[in-house]
Amino acid sequence: xxxxxxxxxxxxxxxxxxxxxxxxxxxxxxxxxxxxxxxxxxxxxxxxxxxxxxxxxxxxxxxxxxxxxxxxxxxxxxxxxxxxxxxxxxxxxxxxxxxxxxxxxxxxxxxxxxxxxxxxxxxxxxxxxxxxxxxxxxxxxxxxxxxxxxxxxxxxxxxxxxxxxxxxxxxxxxxxxxxxxxxxxxxxxxxxxxxxxxxxxxxxxxxxxxxxxxx
Length: 215
Hints:
Radius of gyration: 18 Å
CATH architecture: Alpha-Beta Complex
Number of strands: 7
Distance between the termini: 22 Å
Structural class: alpha/beta
Strand content: 15-25%
Number of helices: 7
Number of domains: 1
Helix content: 25-40%
Shape: elongated
CATH topology: Maf protein
């Protein structure tokens, strides 16, 4: 989808404000753009009760991450053309599940997901310098995918926890790894569950590039 603007993108300084190896790999191997990785230091301590919908929560988190990196790099000579922030959460019956704190938390999450349908929300933010004057411009969007788990026995859950895979992933599972064996069905963008909704991301990046290079 980005092929017509690939050459133009290569001349820009793009920064991914995330340490997620999954997002990095998707941008490198699937999207195929050049970018730097500067993980955000934002603590992700927003009060969830302030948000009416999970989409608002992930968009705000992604914005804070992107702004954190934009501000920290903006004082240097090589100002970034675009900082990309991202946040992904699992939502079960309106309850937001992020990364598990420990094995007990991971077990509780996986047990609650067993035999149910849940939603995965990813919020993406673009932050870039204004072409005229000081400050920055921004844009947020989100994607939602529904995932259905099969019925999980305790021995399956405990073995999966023992693998160590759940601990750096929202909802305590990774669909692109061993966690994919827990999934019965998926409705929507698979890559959104991995952490970066590729179709909407590429579409929004094309729109951004057009506006940025033709002010």
